[in-house]
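User: Fold this; tokens only.

Assistant: Input:
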Amino acid sequence: MTRTLHGPCQFENARNCDILQASSTRPLRKLGNFRYVLVMERQGQFIGQSGAFLDAVERASRAAPMRRPVLVVGERGTGKELIAERLHRLSARWDEPLVTLNCAALPETLIEAELFGHEAGAFTGATRARAGRFEEADKGTLFLDELATLSMGAQERLLRAVEYGEVTRIGSSRPMRVDVRIVAATNEDLPQLAEEGRFRADLLDRLSFEVITLPPLRVREGDVFVLADYFGRRMASELAWAEWPGFGEHAMDLLLAYQWPGNVRELRNVIERAVYRWDDATRPIAHIVFDPFDSPWKPAAAPVTTERMAGAPRQSAPAATDHDHVADLRGAVDAHERGIIEHHLGKHRFNQRATAKALGLSYDQLRHCMKKHGLMERAGSVTETG
């Protein structure tokens, strides 16, 4: 089933954009057997074909023309800032400022001055008056990222700005009227924080006219394949490869099985790193490195003290192999053996002698395993060299 996104759309560089307008009934673009949507917004993009992903983007399109606040919730790397930009670009404020403030990037002592501005002499170091982000965003949109990190004092002032459309610079007694649409983002459970008294419930009520919750990549069915292909092709083009070889079967299986705690941002880094480290542009990429810090020479971790353990989040144990569903022992063992061989062949650029050494096998033993699992044709003639 095809889906279309609706809403007016204007961009500064329309030639580089896939524009989906209100009158458009253009279906989603197609990649192989996958239908997906690609919406370019300046330097950002939405790419995907899962229903959960498209529902979130469509909800943003519907909310964009409204003047009400919108709260965007999602894990790191899910695209909260892209949603904020979409809300702005598809609104009547599209040609006015989109001002962004990461609330976690400033200490508590400076966040209010950054948001609301200050007069000269308002505090030590304030040698001249300065407009705050609300004034800078007048007639436009103010995007507040990491909203949950705001101090209670800043939350109180923000509540007044949202309710009455007025801000007062620090050191001044004269409020100023501003016309600002608020879009806020967080990866925290704000209702829970409000219950615990760590976030103002009245501010949460004001900001949650619409709440757009972005799905993590691990539940976006089919999107890992689509995103991996997109980022891989783009990196191959940057490296001036003549053609895109794609990913080997084992490499794609690894990508699909990974849980992606860093979501799309992490996937992009993993894919681009895999492509640029791959030496043979004529062969499918067969080696994936998820942790770039993984090295036998990395510095040893500092001893974990009782104090550090008390303050650190509990780490979940690695997932155990699911043996309950094994109905064919020989087939399961063969599949495991094949996966190990494919992984090491990719890691050693299909050099069979290096692969055999890494696995503790003789060259002939490795060749026998490769023939057994149908991997000889994929290896090719260059793997004969040592």
